């Protein structure tokens, strides 16, 4: 097995090392101390610029991001619910009365007709969000359940027509 040293791996290293040693020995003790101190300061500066400062910048960015996300989270928690809460739906009475009364609370005019499988409710040109809140309020607070729904987009933005099949 061959013994590898720097001179065999780097043929010019030996002569460069000899020149460096000759340069060092040609300096006085005071110059050697100053060059050593300069080399040490250069090494510290290089370490701080290439390692320490990028880590500190990354940490500061991360802390700022955490503060931003914590502030957004606290704003979201304190904001409460979005939109208007669903009104109370009368839970007693025939289904057609419940549907008509709650429809007026949400600005919806349902047209109710009997069908062998339940009640057919037709709504023309209603705001989509009002229609969804109306259906949610009915299903949450009464025994009426929507079994089938068909939504048709209207030309006006945010408006739909709907055909619902409900059963009590």
Secondary structure elements and their pairing?
Elements: H1 6-9, H2 13-26, H3 29-79, H4 95-105, E1 110-115, E2 118-127, H5 128-141, E3 145-153, E4 159-167
Antiparallel strand pairs: 1-2, 2-4, 3-4
Give a verbal description of the structure.
- The protein has five helices and four strands.
- By secondary structure, the protein is α+β, with helices and mostly antiparallel strands.
- A hairpin with a 5-residue loop joins strand 3 and strand 4 (159-167).
- The longest helix has 51 residues, at 29-79.
- It starts with 5 loop residues before the first helix and ends with a strand.
Brief overview, please?
It is built from five helices and four strands. It is of the alpha+beta class and 168 residues long.
Sequence of secondary-structure elements: HHHHEEHEE
Low-confidence stretches: none
* First-to-last CA distance: 93 Å
Query: Which structural category do the helix and sheet elements fall into?
Result: alpha+beta
Q: Strand order within the widest sheet? A: 1-2-4-3
- The coarse overall form would be rod-shaped
The number of E-state strands comes to: 4
Proportion of β residues? 15-25%
Helix content: 55-70%
Number of DSSP helical runs: 5
The biggest beta sheet reads:
4 strands, antiparallel
Q: What Rg is obtained from the alpha carbons, in whole angstroms?
A: 40 Å
Q: How confident is the prediction overall: mean pLDDT?
A: 87
